[in-house]
Amino acid sequence: MEITREIELDAPREEVWAALTEAERLEEWFANVVELDARPGGDAVFRWENGEERRGVVEELEEERRLALRWDDDGLLEVELADADAGTVLVVRESSPDFGPALELQALRSSDGPTARWLGEMDECDARTQGAGIAALFTRPRTQQRAVQCVPTARASAR
Amino acid sequence: MQPSSEVFSALADPTRRFVVETLAARGDATATELAAELPVTRQAVTKHLAALGEAGLVDAQRSGRETRYRLTPAPLGDAVSWLEEVSGTWDDRLAALKRHLAETSSDKTP
Q1: Which residue from A minimizes the CA distance to B20?
Q2: Could you tell me how far CA A56 lies from the centroid of its own chain?
Q3: What's the pLDDT tens digit per position in B82-96?
Q4: Taking CB atoms and an 8 Å cut-off, how many pairs form between chains A and B?
C-alpha cells in the first residue's frame, strides 16, 4: 500500500529538482530545518516546528529524474520527475510498513461495524463536550470518571 | 502526528483487531468473556490484551476479583485518521512546493 500524488508544475525539471534536493530550498516549503546530503548513501534529517523529526538515507538518486529516500522507520519516499508540455510532472510515492494495518483500521471504521460506531460515538461525545469528555475520561483519577457523561452507549447495552 | 509503531504492530494481528471490534461492541469485557467469543484460549486473549495495552489501545480496570478491559479512544482515533492525515499532508506540501516555485520564478523576472 502506498500514497501517490502527481502534480504538474510550471517550472523546468532542473528547477524542480533544485527545490527537492537543496536543503535551503526544502526549508522554504517542506520542513523548517533540513539537512540533506543529496547522493546515494547520504543522510537526511527533516525537522518541523511542532517538534516532529524524520531521518532517512538516500537510497537512489538519478540527477533531475529520481530520488528515493529510505526513512529510519523503513518507510520509503520516492520522487520522480518527467518533462511536461509546460513544465514538469512530479510524482511522489510514500510507503510504510504501518500503512497496511492503518488501512485495515480504516476498513474497520468504514465497515459500519462496532468499531465504526464506537469511534462515531466518541467523536459525537467529543463534539458535545468540546473535547473535555474524552480527555477528562483518561486524565482524571478513576474515582471522578463516573461524573463524565461521555460513555459509549454500547457499554450500557452490553451489561 | 504519527501514532507510535507499537499501535500498528499491535493492530497488524487479525485476532487483536477482532478483540478491538468486540470491545467496541460490548463497551468493556473480561478476558474470559472475550475468549468465549473467539476461537482462542483465555490465555491467548490475555496476551493479546497485554499487547494492546502496551500500545495504549486498551485500558484495564480492576473491579473486585475481575479485570475489565475497554478501548482508549485517543490512540485508536489517531491511528484511524493517520492515513488521511499523511495524504492530506502531501496535498499541503505539494501546494506549498507549487507556491514556492511560482515565487522563485517570479523573483527572477525583472
Answers
A1: A115
A2: 15
A3: 888 888 889 999 999
A4: 132
